[in-house]
Each structure stands twice: as structure tokens, then as C-alpha cells.
Amino acid sequence: MFRFAKAALNLTGQSARQVAVRHASDVSTEFHAKYGYPLIAAGTAFCIAVWGYVLTSTGITWNLSPVGKVEPKPWREE
After folding, report:
1. How far is CA 10 from CA 1, 2, 5, 22, in A?
2. Mean pLDDT over residues 44-72, rounded?
């Protein structure tokens, strides 16, 4: 275990530079600038479509409020 922890914490100059170069990439910002809004719109449409199907076509009884549906049992005197 000690060797694993030592190797995990061992950052040489080259590995630190590789991490710095990896984080300096503009690929992420380019991707979000190019595909961000269409992905959000597609995800929103998909979510609305799935929930629309679930709410209307599956036949689930949601039973949202018990008011007026739950009545106490009659009182029994012994």
C-alpha cells in the first residue's frame, strides 16, 4: 500500500507539465460554444417527451392527495 501511495503522489516535472497542458486545452470551450444550446434543447425535449409519456400513457394512478379519500374506521365500543 505504501508503494502505491508513494507512486500516486510522485509528480515529476514532466507529469506536472502534461497536466498543465491538458487543462489549458480549448477543446472544451469550443465544444460547448458549438454544441451547448442544441444539447440543452435536445435534453429538455427528451425529458419533456419521456415525462409526457409517463404521465399520460402508462396508466399509473398517482394518488396525489388523500384528502376526501381516507376515512377513519368506525368506532367500536366494547
Report:
1. 14, 12, 9, 18
2. 83
